[in-house]
Design brief:
seven-stranded parallel β-sheet; alpha/beta; 7 strands; 14% strand; Rossmann fold; binds nicotinamide-adenine-dinucleotide
Length: 266
């Protein structure tokens, strides 16, 4: 039997770079996937490619009523919700460019980032948990970032939102663990998607210099971790934020410079 056989998984941001790779992995492992995204066409395309175990739906995680109706609708149609994967966030390049520093970011963008990323993720949990409590079992995966692990020169709103998601994850795990609900977060480092190239292609080599691996991450790397968290074999893991970043955060910040220095001495 496959690891995720017949598990019902709802994933937001399913049409994006990481989301679509996760949907594909979940399907490969036997799941039924409700693929939710702001851009309906992106998830319809995915369903056309992967077959009728992918159910495409439109959602805006910043729209409370719509998000609730998508979660309730999935349970009404499929009978249960085994895993909620809150993967969507504001990632479009325009937003990323305007998300700068505490004094420079437009206040409207700060508010919108927290509303979509934090409150949107929170709403997913809030609407999924009652169904999971009825089932006596449930599993939530949230999406943080290495932006939650340390400060950055820009993206004050995005990074703050991701830190809040780690806090939310630990609180959900604490409040509902004894009732059979697990909650973990994934904190990806640089994962090469279409948007990653659009935001600043020149960032790739710079970030790779600070990774301990020969290559940057791919969406499939996140798919592999998400499948593990979605499966029952991770049953003893909850309240954790799992960093998957090629070791970028695992060494002294000066390591790359120090390596250059040592090479110069040789
Ligand atoms: N790619 C990376 O390097 C990286 C690194 C760290 C964290 N992450 C996180 O991983 C997740 C996925 O990122 P990605 O790289 O695949 O981005 P992406 O831009 O490729 O995909 C994001 C998807 O989310 C959808 N979306 C945006 N706003 C939405 C909303 N309000 N409601 C529903 N869907 C919405 C978009 O339509 C898109 O399909 C995000 O939470 C992101 O912050 C990505």
């Amino acid at each position: 039997m496959k690891r995720l056989q017949d598990k019902v998984i709802l994933i937001t941001g399913a049409g994006g770079g990481i989301g679509s790779a996760c949907v594909e992995r979940f399907i490969d492992e036997g799941a039924i996937v409700v693929a939710a995204d702001l851009m309906l066409a992106s998830v319809e395309k995915l369903a056309n490619r992967l077959g009728d175990r992918v159910i495409p739906v439109q959602v805006d995680i910043g729209d409370e009523q719509l998000f609730k109706s998508v979660i309730d609708g999935a349970v009404a149609r499929l009978g249960r919700l085994d895993v909620l994967f809150n993967n969507a966030a504001l990632t479009d390049p325009t937003t990323q460019y305007m998300d700068t520093t505490a004094t420079d970011i437009p206040l409207e963008l700060w508010r919108r980032t927290l509303e979509v990323n934090v409150t949107g993720t929170f709403m997913g949990c809030r609407f999924a948990i009652p169904h999971m409590l009825k089932q006596g079992k449930g599993n939530i995966i949230n999406t943080a970032s290495i932006g939650a692990n340390a400060g950055d020169s820009v993206r004050v709103a995005y990074c703050t939102s991701k830190i809040a998601i780690v806090g939310l994850t630990k609180n959900i795990a604490t409040q509902y663990g004894k009732k059979g609900i697990r909650c973990n977060a994934i904190a990806p480092g640089p994962i090469v998607t279409e948007n990653f190239h659009k935001v600043a292609p020149e960032l790739g080599p710079m970030l790779l210099r600070h990774a301990l691996t020969p290559e940057l991450g791919t969406p499939d790397d996140i798919g592999a971790l998400a499948a593990y968290l979605a499966a029952d074999e991770s049953r003893f893991m909850t309240g954790q934020c799992l960093t998957i970043d090629g070791g970028i955060g695992a060494h002294h910040p000066h390591t790359a410079d120090f390596d250059d220095y040592l090479a110069g001495l040789a």
